[in-house]
Known about the structure:
By secondary structure, the protein is mostly helical.
Amino acid sequence: MQINPAFANGLLSIQRGMQGLDRNAHEIASRPARGTDEPARDLAQPLVESRINLRQVQAGAAVVRTQDEMIGSLLDTFA
């Protein structure tokens, strides 16, 4: 079975967004606790990136949903 390029790109976008969210969560969770000698890292960057990655996942899901609806419409037309 061949996967449509639009569907494959939607899945790839979801996968990359989820990987980015995982990376952001790890960076936020590995922040040193208060009271340690390590300087606190700026958390703004991973928080902003997590919003970007969330939007990427949402966009990929929209592509997959639209592709599914298009295929459904084509099948309804030809059936």
